[in-house]
Amino acid sequence: MLLERDLIQSVGFRNVREGDRVTGFQFRLRMPSYRGMAASLIDGVAVLVGDLVDVPADVPLWTLGGQTLTLDGLWQSEGLRWQLEDAAVVTVPFEGGLPQGVHEVSIELRLRMSYVPEEHQPSVYRVSKHVTLTPEGGAGTFQYGVSLYSFMGDFGTVLDLETALAAVADVGATGVEILGEGHVANYPEPSTAWRDEWFRLLEKYSLQPTNYGSWIDTRLHSSGPHARPMTAEEGAATLQRDLRLAKDLGFRFVRPKIGVVSGDLVPDPIWTESVERSLDLAHELDVIICPEIHSPTPIHHPVVDDYIDLIRRTGTKHFGLLIDTGIFQDRPIPLGPGETRETRPAFLDGIGVDPADFADVAEYVVFVQAKFHDIDENLDDKQIPWRPVLQALKNAGYTGYLSSEYEGVREPWRSIEQVRRQHSLIRSITDTLD
Amino acid sequence: MLLERDLIQSVGFRNVREGDRVTGFQFRLRMPSYRGMAASLIDGVAVLVGDLVDVPADVPLWTLGGQTLTLDGLWQSEGLRWQLEDAAVVTVPFEGGLPQGVHEVSIELRLRMSYVPEEHQPSVYRVSKHVTLTPEGGAGTFQYGVSLYSFMGDFGTVLDLETALAAVADVGATGVEILGEGHVANYPEPSTAWRDEWFRLLEKYSLQPTNYGSWIDTRLHSSGPHARPMTAEEGAATLQRDLRLAKDLGFRFVRPKIGVVSGDLVPDPIWTESVERSLDLAHELDVIICPEIHSPTPIHHPVVDDYIDLIRRTGTKHFGLLIDTGIFQDRPIPLGPGETRETRPAFLDGIGVDPADFADVAEYVVFVQAKFHDIDENLDDKQIPWRPVLQALKNAGYTGYLSSEYEGVREPWRSIEQVRRQHSLIRSITDTLD
């Protein structure tokens, strides 16, 4: 397990209940010193949350090593420790709890250092952070999940598998989506130890595997003197390798990302035979193959028609559509450094598919990737119009997963807070849909 | 294991040898995509190193999964993969290798994405980074080590234990120093699994445990209605707990950081009895207790005289001095945000102890912490005058460890490169001492 760099951790910021009553809120704190220390060296933490909460340093309760104590309890403790590797849980009594959404949490933490002259003691740490309360609401309409794709750049540098899954569970998600070639160590042949750990973590964090991303790399051998195209047989073998691995890891959906042959993402013609050769296996494994409809491909497009045609032609229940909500993006992604509107692909401005179009293909949609790029501290999404999108999904009777795909700026740890904001946003909207 | 955020990893940048010849250099690359991929999808990497090296994309060799191949070899490979979790090793033939020090390494990496329209292919990644070659030289004069204190803030957020130890070993260090209350999980009672892992990693990375930092927290119960001072008996019990744990983990030195009673860091008077009660145990365990001489305490100071007096009085071989090179700092640490020269402790400007003073206490010095704050890409240390310091250590016959303590700006991953720079600097100076 790893901790977030900020002292105030996003993961773990939640209301707390006693029976039916919400009695306060809590958050996790990383030790600011370079060492862990005895709990009796803590001189408390004052907490301010916007203009809602302002409590002095002796009010919050501390949970360390599974024990919850008052400040006086810490002072009297013997042997209890705030370990460097463990976040302390700070609980603030606040009847009714905090409202859903993003809060500015400020702390003044006091620690006694025996090796610092008394005149400079206690050591005081003052930090503030915008943090999103663990989202609630939205139950009964959709299911909520997170793709580990959201953590691109963070996964493997600031997040290990357990830390990532803990962050997913902490948004209240029940489903986790992965990329086989990214999140399965030693893909396509994970060790028994890795597989055991995967299932241990799913159980620990109460997560269900949802969709498994795979690739049919049609350009696998397109460079060099021995270049040659991929055959449908090879495409099928690739897909079937991933179907088996996905099933083995508990997944119900496999999204093959198929090589393209045109600027508007028309898939390589081998896709049809690759899929059709694999339908029996998908049936046997009870896994649904679902290529994604991804910007710049809109819902009304020959590629989608071809997918639907395959379903009708074969009558299969093991092939369906995955909708990436990036197709509904109706405002541009900000230009990156050195980027111009003219030189970057036009679809980054948003192709603005009408959410109402969803109804036309809803009967074939088996999974939704909730793509997004930037949500500010007022829960304002800068690119995706969630209210009409979610209303259209609900109107069309979609009750499956909304699986977060954060695709914004890749600053370390940013993804964790962005995913929390998205879940807070989509759940609060869902509660107020018609 | 975790990877550094930059695509070009600092850890692993080194010259390579075939027998007695240096035939080139190599570095590790993190996969820039959000997925791992088949090796045949790599279209090579062009490498530029300052004005020394400029090779096109088909020249470097690639090591993936233990196999080293040419670009053509990658294209013909089947089943070989660049896993998301593994850095690729790029080897550039360059007779004689690179000179020691910091180099600006630039790459242009090309990868084929089957799902991106041909007109935007291959995907090209251009990055540059100042990286320090794994230091060589300096052998036979001192021993070289690193304290995990150097990684404060990084340890537990971007470095796990193995990644940290790998970074230590990669500077060519043979010794590792830790803080018991920081780097031993569940201190003071690590699990058997943790202890087994500790020894496995020491062996894997060929590292010797050197010094173990501990604390005698004299203010352990100095807050609240039941406040009371620490007794010498409690101080001794604390020290002895750490002596036993240090020995159990293979350490030869224990630095107790003792609570202070004055602005110039005079230790609490219980230190004498706490130490004297522990000398028999230190003898039995063959561990040397060594309080540190740390800025603002200079070498010629009553505190140091008292330590030496204890050695003379008891005749012990298990108590000595640890010198922190921060006492030789002769230029100021830059002001932090909101900090002024007037409000911060004056010693941050440097107390500038004359390195020649070292000779006066050398017979009692058992360990040196090589404290530093900032070394630029020209290997210019902005605070510590290494040449006179190292010359004084050599003149006085010190042949023990120089154990890096980076104490500069705590930006994620900065410590890794700073420690490399320090070792490069002190080893190159050591080779040219009188």
Q: Give the C-alpha Rg of chain A.
A: 24 Å
Rounded to the nearest angstrom, the distance between the terminal CA atoms of chain A is: 41 Å
- Largest sheet: number of strands, sense, barrel closure of chain A: 9 strands, parallel
Given helix and strand content, the structural type of chain A is alpha/beta
Globular, elongated, flat, extended or rod-shaped: what is the shape of chain A?
A: elongated
Mean pLDDT of chain A: 97
- Greatest interface: A-B, 71 and 70 residues
State the oligomer: homodimer
> What topology, given as strand order, has the largest sheet of chain A?
16-15-14-13-12-20-19-18-17
Q: What share of residues are in beta strands of chain A?
A: 25-35%
Structural features, described:
The structure is a homodimer of 434-residue chains. Chain A has 434 residues and is α/β, with parallel strands linked by helices. Chain A contains eleven helices and 20 strands. Chain A has helices at 71-76, 161-170, 180-183, 192-204, 232-248, 270-276, 279-285, 302-314, 358-361, 386-395, 414-430; strands at residues 14-18, 21-29, 37-38, 42-49, 53-55, 61-64, 67-69, 81-82, 88-93, 102-111, 123-132, 143-147, 175-179, 208-216, 253-258, 288-289, 292-293, 321-324, 365-372, 401-406. Chain A has a nine-stranded parallel β-sheet. A five-stranded antiparallel β-sheet of chain A has the order 1-2-9-6-7. In chain A, strands 5-4-10-11 form a four-stranded antiparallel β-sheet. In chain A, helix 5 packs across helix 6 and helix 10 crosses helix 11 (414-430). The radius of gyration of chain A is 24 Å and the shape is elongated. The model of chain A has no long low-confidence stretch (mean pLDDT 97). Chains A and B meet through strand 3, helix 1, helix 3 and strand 14 of A and strand 3, helix 1, helix 3 and strand 14 of B.
